[in-house]
Design goal:
By secondary structure, the protein is of the alpha/beta class. A hairpin with a 2-residue loop joins strand 1 and strand 2. Strands 1-2-4-3-5-6-7-8 form an eight-stranded mixed sheet, with helices on both faces. The chain has eleven helices and eight strands. Helix 1 packs across helix 11, helix 2 runs parallel beside helix 8 and helix 5 packs antiparallel against helix 6.
């Protein structure tokens, strides 16, 4: 653990987090995606938001990185079957539990309300925050995510395989190379990472902590949440959706459906963007999210 990282009890579990300040800035909580740790957020993006005066906070979701690990090995086919029968699936935890983790972290840090932004599964988590904890949010940004609507186009077979296939062993170099190969499948075609940059990103995540068992429980939470479309229709928190038009993993229709489901949501579709956040687009991401956040702050102040 680096000097900047700390742990705290939040929502009954141990959460590993990093608070980059400034202490008097508007809090901006970063929520990462499926199987990834908080190390997936680029320094360029976090530094850019900090330079804009935001209090930048990132954390490891439960079951990844250095946050608490849970128990239970759910069977995904049984989760799907339960949903089809209109039953509540038996899973170790839900996306709502994961949303409560992030809200619990804000509480532990003494933060009453915050801006939140999430990528992929993290987008689903911030959607759940908006559904379950709207009073704790100033604004929401959902990036390359979806509603859980079963009628939407699925990921390409190649992208899904890249996400779910396991490496041949748990050896560091094997895992890093495996992840590099997978991310090449669903990266932004207009902004491919260099081998050096991609290696450093994958190595940083592995060195932070490699814990593949947790991804099964996270996937069960995603599948088990079903469709959020009807629940999102009641959201009134200022909401921004960002999605890449070239995303083969979570298709662009997922972002469009998210924006359609939330009253008044804004939608930004980006050419050449896949299922990642290219460094080359940092200024665009920051500009979009800052404008959205400041507008939400002005709206809140006027109420």
């Amino acid at each position: 653990m680096t000097a900047n990282q700390k742990t705290v009890k939040a929502n009954g579990i141990t959460i590993n987090y990093e608070d980059r300040g400034p202490a008097d800035g508007a809090p901006l909580l970063f929520v990462n995606g499926y199987g990834s740790t908080m190390m997936s957020w680029t320094p360029e993006l976090m530094d850019a938001f900090k330079a804009k005066g935001f209090r930048v906070i990132r954390y490891d979701n439960r079951d990844v990185g250095r946050s608490e690990k849970l128990r239970g090995l759910p069977k995904i086919d049984e989760v799907v079957a339960a949903l089809r029968e209109g039953k509540t699936p038996a899973i170790p935890y839900t996306l709502s539990d994961m949303a409560a983790d992030g809200i619990g972290l804000l509480t532990a840090l003494g933060i009453e309300r915050a801006h939140v932004m999430g990528i992929s599964m993290g987008g689903m988590i911030v959607q759940a925050m908006a559904i379950n904890h709207p009073d704790r949010l100033i604004s929401v940004t959902s990036i390359m995510s979806t509603t859980g609507n079963f009628d939407l186009p699925k990921a390409s077979d190649e992208a899904m395989a890249a996400l779910q296939q396991m490496p041949a062993s748990d050896e560091r170099e094997v895992v890093i190379r495996h992840r590099m190969k997978g991310r090449r499948v669903y990266q932004s075609p207009a902004y491919p990472m260099s081998d050096e940059a991609l290696y450093a990103r994958c190595a940083g995540e592995f060195d932070h902590m490699y814990y593949p068992e947790g991804t099964l429980r996270q996937y069960a939470a995603i599948v088990g949440d079903g469709s959020r479309v009807e629940r999102l229709k009641n959201v009134r928190v200022p909401f921004l959706v960002i999605h890449g038009k070239a995303d083969p993993l979570v298709r662009v229709e997922g972002g469009i459906d998210t924006a359609k489901s939330v009253p008044g949501a804004k939608l930004e579709l980006i050419d050449g963007m896949g299922h990642d956040m290219p460094v080359e687009l940092t200024s665009r991401f920051v500009g979009l999210i800052e404008a959205h956040a400041r507008g939400a702050e002005r709206k809140a102040a006027a109420e």
